[in-house]
Amino acid sequence: MPLKKRWQSLDRATVGQAPERWGMYELGSGGEIKTIGSGVLRDELKTELTYSRAEQVRWEACQSREHAERLADEHRERAELG
Fold it and tell me: At 79, which helix (H) or strand (E)?
């Protein structure tokens, strides 16, 4: 089950808006989920912007590392990505 948030372009402006908090994120292209990850959002998205071929991103901020990892695992399972 994807996040119920609209996709944003994976670009420097969007990455700059990401909070410096733990969270899970979805990367996509053409509205299709390609990758689901977790970590400190701004740091992770900076890396993805540099190395990923994804065009879009959406995220959910979390209270802790454990919460972010659990949420990412649940979403990977539902999306059959992992």
Answer: helix 65-79
Which tens digit of pLDDT belongs to each residue from 2-17? 788 999 999 999 999 9
CA distance 21 to 52: 21
Phi and psi for 79 in degrees, rounded to 5?
Answer: -85, 0
Beta carbons within 8 Å of 3's beta carbon, 6+ residues apart: 26, 58, 59, 60, 75
Residues 60 and 23 sit within 8 Å (Cβ to Cβ):
yes
22-29, strands of its sheet edge to edge: 8-9, 56-61, 22-29, 32-40
What Å distances lie between residue 66 and 22, 34, 39, 40, CA to CA?
Answer: 9, 22, 10, 12
Using an 8 Å Cβ cutoff, are 12 and 24 in contact?
no
